[in-house]
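stuck on this fold:
=====
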Amino acid sequence: QIDLYAVVKEAVEITKSKWKDEVQEKGIHIGMILNLEKVPSVAGVASELKEVIANMIVNAAEAMPGGGRIEIRTFEREGACIQISDSGMGMTEEVRKKIFEPFFTTQPFTHTGLGLSMSYGIVRRLGGGIEVESRFGEGTTFTLTLPIRVEGSGDWADLSVPKKKRHEARIL
């Protein structure tokens, strides 16, 4: 069982050098806003989910070369949800369609293009999905939805969302 509050806090801490220390040396400020509601635990390996969240935090920081804010929320909606939003550059429809493909990157000299592909695989293996909303020039929001256990039983809650909706990506 994974405590999402603890995993998010650890991911924020291990990425602090990327979104705070390195950018402050350049005179840039990235604010981190945590809005963490209590949500039920989910099954899986905490280190894998921490890797997913850390990857998304680093991507968000890199999407804001002039600074901005990252907001991470947890809430319950058709499962346990983690939402990572940034006020960065956003992405075009063309880029959005490829973000989960292995080796796709917009920064070929600094990245392998495996971060979001691996993150997507981890979330799907946990029985969840990822939604992406982005406005070019205005930022991006990733929402991870993970199944929760029904209290008092060994069964998983039915997410009641068609699979295509759980990983649908939208550009606004």
Summary: The chain has six helices and six strands. The CA atoms of residues 101 and 117 lie 6 Å apart. The longest strand covers residues 68-76. The first helix runs from residue 4 to 14.
